[in-house]
Design brief:
By secondary structure, the chain is of the alpha+beta class. It folds into 2 domains: 59 residues, no CATH class; 41 residues. It has 3 helices and 4 strands, in the order ββββααα. Strands 1-2-3-4 form a 4-stranded antiparallel beta sheet, with helices on one face. β3 and β4 form a beta hairpin. α2 crosses α3. The protein is elongated, with a radius of gyration of 20 Å.
Length: 128
Amino acid sequence: MTNTMEYRGYVASMIFDAEDKVIVGRVLDVDDIITFHGESVREFERNLHTIVDDYIAACEKLGAAPEKPASGRLMLRVSPTAHAAALKAAARKGVSLNKWAEQALNAASRKSASQRTSRDSGGEVASD
């Protein structure tokens, strides 16, 4: 059983707050903090719809694109040479090309995030 609810591609967590007797929700997988609550599942769902619709409308009003959660599917076009090299690297690691690419993307994004953090804190970062 998952404690989430989905609307328009956005997924929200559902956590029961016993003290306040409400279900607290937070939209997951976006950098913007989007929270809401409901006293029943029906109210929670209604409020999820409202908060997501309001978020999208506010972004449009500001001329910004609303952040969308990633689907987990990624289509890339690369040179045949890069494709062949990636296939060989995946085979050497004994994993599928999808798994190898996921690991490479995770490593690259962690490196990028740590460089950004280092830059933001005043540290110098050597470029590749």
